[in-house]
Amino acid sequence: MAARFLSLACIGQKNYGDFSPTPHYPSMPKGVTPEHEKLLRGSESVALFSVIGMTCSACAASIEKAVKRLPGIKDAAVDVLNNRAQVLFYPSLVHDETIRETIEDAGFSARLMEEENSDKSTKVCRILIKGMTCSSCSTTVESALQALPGIHKAQVALATEEAQVRYDSKIVTQDQILEAIEHTGFEAILVSLGEDLSRIELKVDGMDSDKCTRIIENSLKALPGVEDIRIDPELKKFSVSYNASMTGPRNFIQVIQSTGSGRYKAYIYPEGEGGGGRDAHKRQEIKQYFRYFLWSLIFTIPIFLSSMVFMYIPGIKHVLNRKVVNMLELGGLMRWILATPVQFVIGRRFYTGSYKALRHGSANMDVLIALGTNAAYFYSVYMVLRAATSPHFEATDFFETSSMLISFILLGKYLEILAKGKTSEAISKLMNLAPHTATLLTLDNEGNVKNEEEIDSRLIQRNDMIKILPGAKVASDGIVVWGQSHVNESMITGEARPVAKRQGDTVIGGTVNENGVLHIRATHVGSESALSQIVRLVESAQMAKAPVQKFADRISKYFVPMVIALSVITWLSWFLAGKFNSYPKSWIPSSIDSFQLALQFGISVMVIACPCALGLATPTAVMVGTGVGATQGILIKGGQALESAHKVNCIVFDKTGTLTMGKPLVVNTKLLRNMVLGEFYELIAAAEVNSEHPLAKAIVEYAKKFNEDGENPVWPEARDFESITGHGVKAIVRNKEITVGNKSLMLDLNIHIPIEAEEMLAEAEGMAQTGILVSIDGELAGVVAISDPLKPSAREVVTILKSMNVKSIMVTGDNWGTARSIAKEAGIDTVIAEAKPEYKAEKVKELQASGYTVAMVGDGINDSPALVAADVGMAIGAGTDIAIEAADIVLMKSNLEDVITAIDLSRKTFTRIRLNYIWALGYNILGIPIAAGVLFPSTGFRLPPWIAGAAMAASSVSVVCCSLLLRYYRRPKELNSLEIGGITVE
């Protein structure tokens, strides 16, 4: 499957010197009104960019899509063959630097043609950020990073607690980026450096000084391909980022051990030891919060018992009420002593967090907690000290409020982190598909095996020879050099039937070798492997913010200041009401006075408000949704794609390979001139062998039957080969001009089509077959009928989509007769045939202009213009080529049913997001007034601060748990009983 896509040639070459008046896609905001455009006319500028990294038309289409989404872009054209992009834009609305950054955001390196700077200076790093609690925190970090010179783009995700930063290494360094994050009050740990770099952590024994460390570091830096080295002297750990195509971890170990003449011993850092890696940091954080909670509980339980329980037990009450100094009671003194370490030692993180947030002009959850607990604690201290200095004053303290608040909040954070850890389980499952060990073969000069060694699979390097035993997982992407077997590739393709493998075939790391021994040569290791690319795609998807999240980000800016203001107003209102006797004295509980009652209401308002729940509502659901999609073979490229997919009400299907099997077969041939059938097929196969079209492959495959060499035929040389997109091919074979294509091609070339051929074409079309005309030296020589049967599930899928209120349309470059027959068989009413790739895109735009939210389902290459134009592009049949930039969603299993699953999953995810927002907003809207005491006058009900704090902690946990329910997502029941070719799928 991968080979199919890697071998596809880029399509066509356009002249981009002039811009066509092609309108913008209706789904993409142009940013310029017609009136505004009149004013700006004549002020356009043209920028020419050099774009590195494009491999096919899908890449070019993805760049066009990204650039045209910017405001102020009049038009854009990308020339994939010359690696250039030309953009016509309004300088008053958008800057050329912004356009360049947008191209880079699409995954390519770009520079203005007049620039001298090397685009190699642009790098990407991922950073783990510890200590973020709400959207305000992530916004603060993001703003701090964006303010740094040299930062092109910074994304901070609250749910994953990570930042992805694209920066210019000539202007800013990683250390400066880490310092900027730490300056905002959070701990920053580098996770990875560069999207195309691998990273390995090595432990080195035998180092006893800084000199040893420097010697080893310099030795590693001398290796070609080593990009970055980070050292932790205490743990004796070297984290090396490197280019896997140039070097590898065994080279590092060899260099380290040879540097000290055997003095140093290097090996891969044990997983989970010393806090290395994201998972280890997460486990450490969970343990830390649990430990804090336990210690807090040890101090809080006696405080709670002495103030809430023991006061009703006569013997113990007498002891606690014993006076120590003046009116200071033993119970009050004990609660003060026990509450102090909870407030200042265990609760220290809230002080540091709020100080750092306020220092940068923002306010987060830590500010609310610190203010609430300080108000309760210091008021209690005041009461205790006043009782100690007065012979008459009886004190009532709130030490249980501050300590229980901190305990419940720590418990909530512990449960929240525990739950958040489960949202990224999908990535862990994907990474666990790779085997832990591999058998490395050492060959002699003649290619014979002279040694076998079992190594950690992370030590595999490019061009290593690996032995795969029956029943074992393939250790790396590679090519079979010896042996025959069948490999189960269902984890990538979804196809349960094992695929035969022999010499020269490609294998994918993580797939299972069913039978037979294979020797493979590793071709893609580390970050280059298919599995790593899938993991990276899922990680990027989870990092990207859905547009709906902007709502929470806007609220978070004003949430905490607003809550503090409400808290002060609540306290002041109740205090003044009590001062001027605006409510009966009987409302005040016997143990407190009006000031204390007002203070309790104020603290309750402050601690019940929860900005965390709002901040976690969207990212946790998107994380779980994209993770669930990945485990089901549906790669959703971020929150934008997920949000658009749930609105889809019209799907445009390509025919060949999407609705049909994609494996056409020649079913009939009619010769119109006197010649041998074998010679006829030899001539057209020689021309068609240069084409990648599925119909061309069918003809070549059929022609093998007439060739003596069978499976490995040698075809005559084809000169002046020309592929006419959407029509056919032309070539000179044995000095004869061969033209193979559809009816319109023959008419364009003025080739006469006899009635006999017309009749056969009509007959083929009536049987849902494609008729291919063959001309030799300008005269029609034969007609070839090719059948590409409809996928067994196609009709049922279209029926289910109708029940979901989604309209289905088929667009194909095939002839009208075949298109209508296939559409009728599939149950599709609207058909567009004989459509060139650019016309498919125009049809998508027409549907969008009619008010539809359109999804395009195609193969990701020939359909790339339509995939780009659609609101949601779905690439079907992608296999391991997960880098199809034109698609928003990649359906790896090549199953049509996954179109339904993708739409249904996005709808379920957004239902969950709405529920999260309803809960988070509803909780705050209802909770704050109740905490402020609106029910107290009529019912006498008031919410003690410690219960308000518990409710606040519970709200974040409930939002994360609500998102986690998506883990139990099941595809629609209709698909479970879908009959495919007489076989029921259960």
Query: What is the CA-CA span between the terminal residues?
Result: 26 Å
Helical segment tally? 34
Radius of gyration: 34 Å
Q: What does the average pLDDT come to? A: 79
Low-confidence stretches: 1-35, 115-119, 272-276, 879-883, 979-986
Pfam families: E1-E2_ATPase, HMA, Hydrolase
Protein name: P-type Cu(+) transporter
Keywords: ATP-binding, Copper, Copper transport, Ion transport, Membrane, Metal-binding, Nucleotide-binding, Repeat, Translocase, Transmembrane, Transmembrane helix, Transport
Main location: membrane
Quick structural overview:
With 986 residues, the chain is an alpha+beta fold.
Task: Based on the model shown, name its key terms.
986 residues; alpha+beta; seven-stranded mixed beta sheet; 34 helices; 38 strands; six-stranded antiparallel beta sheet
Question: What does this entry look like structurally?
Answer:
By secondary structure, this protein is of the alpha+beta class. The protein contains 34 helices and 38 strands.
